[in-house]
Design goal:
The protein has about 220 residues and is α/β, with parallel strands linked by helices. It is built from seven helices and ten strands. It has a five-stranded mixed β-sheet, with helices on one face. Strands 4-5-6-8-7 form a five-stranded mixed β-sheet, with no helix packed on it.
Length: about 220
């Protein structure tokens, strides 16, 4: 069984389709989606619909990103402003019909609620944002700080990392994948396609560290 991690999609369903077409996914491969399926891009509804069908075809794990967490804050607690300024308006618009009525299917809400904060394996720890760089992986998991899983960025500037396995993450857009012994970042800014150094959706096949990227397609 191979592991294939896929970076931040942000509503870019056509780009996701393009990546899935060129990935050499085998029947027993395990797809791990790193989070941020929604917001900012043109079709968040379409992304979730595609992931719902994909999990019927392949073994998938869907991690929670900070944008899914903001979406739940809006749905559960009415926290609209912070959701909206972080790209949530695009998500809500994708659920509107031509008359302006909005309906979010319960299946889509259940999908977001069912996302996981991390996935741990013998060689890799998959998480949306990252881990604290002053603690081991085991210490991070023992502390179980969900804000760290969803928002952390300080590890990207740390000179050394005490992690006993490789952490695979997204969250922070980078012009090139970060491929270090203890850290892989595959968020290559798909939705930021107007930025000259970004605009790619990236996956990594593990343990061989084979990277596959496609440019923004919508």
């Amino acid at each position: 069984m191979g592991l294939i991690a896929i970076g931040d999609i942000h509503g870019c369903v056509r780009t996701l389709e393009g990546l899935l077409k060129i990935l050499d996914v085998q029947e027993d491969d395990h797809l791990i989606f790193i989070g941020d399926y929604i917001d900012r891009g043109p079709d968040s509804k379409g992304v979730i619909a595609r992931l719902l069908t994909l999990r019927e075809e392949r073994r998938c794990t869907f991690l929670r990103g900070n944008h899914e967490d903001l979406f739940l804050g809006y749905l559960d607690d009415g926290e609209y402003d912070i959701f909206a300024i972080n790209g949530g308006i695009a998500t809500l618009s994708s659920y509107m019909d031509p008359s302006g009525d909005m309906e979010i299917p319960q299946e889509h809400i259940d999908f977001v609620r069912g996302t996981e904060f991390y996935m741990d394996t013998e060689e890799f720890l998959f998480v949306h944002a990252g881990l604290r760089p002053d603690m081991t992986v085991a210490e991070n998991l023992e502390e179980d700080n969900q804000e760290v899983y969803l928002w952390e960025r300080s590890h990207l500037k740390a000179e050394t990392l005490p992690w006993e396995k490789t952490v695979v993450c997204g969250h922070t857009p980078v012009p090139e994948v970060v491929n270090k012994e203890q850290l892989i970042n595959i968020d290559t800014g798909c939705v930021y396609h107007t930025h000259p150094a970004m605009g790619f959706l990236t996956a990594v096949a593990l343990p061989e560290r084979r990277f596959v990227s496609v440019p923004y397609m919508g």
